[in-house]
Amino acid sequence: MMGVNTKVLNPATQDHSFGTVPVLTLARKNQSPIITLAAPINLKEGKHFGPNAGFGVQHIWAEHNVEIVAAGFAGVADVPAYVQRILNMPTLLYFEDRPGPKTRVNAVRIVTGTVILEYVQTKVGNILTPYWSVVTAYSDTRTKGVVVGSM
């Protein structure tokens, strides 16, 4: 059985990357901007904790299975293909300055849907390694925030 933090393969490339987010400068009200490094996007097996709470494949399926099936995908095993379809180029990145400790952007492809990405930095030895983790994905393409980049 896979753990919640197990990275899932991108079905289009057979590796763990679902794309790369470029360097971003995220302006915040009355605070210094957040500057993120260019980093890959990873989708994890994840966990669904309840309504609007969780991350990764399990959370996406629990919250959005009806729309995923309506988009032509058969089951939870197809969630990576659903995410990959949304993150295909071109995808605009939006930043909504919300309070809280997590840095998130919305990757919106107007034709197919939205993927919420969270910036994560892990430390291996003395080296900080950043990546963007897929929190959720859904068919709604309404945008929130300001455009901060594209991928």
Write the layout of secondary structure elements.
Layout: E1 20-21, E2 24-26, E3 34-36, E4 39-42, E5 47-50, E6 53-55, H1 56-70, H2 79-87, E7 92-95, E8 104-109, E9 113-124, E10 127-138, E11 146-150
Parallel strand pairs: 4-10
Antiparallel strand pairs: 1-4, 2-3, 5-6, 7-8, 7-11, 8-9, 9-10
Descriptive report:
- By secondary structure, the protein is of the alpha+beta class.
- It has two helices and eleven strands.
- It has helices at 56-70, 79-87; strands at 20-21, 24-26, 34-36, 39-42, 47-50, 53-55, 92-95, 104-109, 113-124, 127-138, 146-150.
- A seven-stranded mixed sheet has the order 1-4-10-9-8-7-11, with helices on both faces. Strands 2-3 form a two-stranded antiparallel ribbon. The chain has a two-stranded antiparallel sheet with strand order 5-6.
- Strand 5 (47-50) and strand 6 (53-55) form a beta hairpin.
- The longest helix has 15 residues, at 56-70.
- The chain starts with 19 loop residues before the first strand and ends with a strand.
Distinct helical segment count: 2
Largest sheet: 7 strands, mixed
Quote the average pLDDT.
91
Helix content: 10-25%
| CA radius of gyration | 15 Å
Query: What's the order of the H and E elements?
Result: EEEEEEHHEEEEE
The low-confidence runs, each spanning 5 or more residues with pLDDT under 50, are none
Strand order of the largest sheet: 1-4-10-9-8-7-11
Strand content: 35-45%
Concise synopsis of the structure shown:
The chain has helices at residues 56-70, 79-87, and strands at residues 20-21, 24-26, 34-36, 39-42, 47-50, 53-55, 92-95, 104-109, 113-124, 127-138, 146-150.
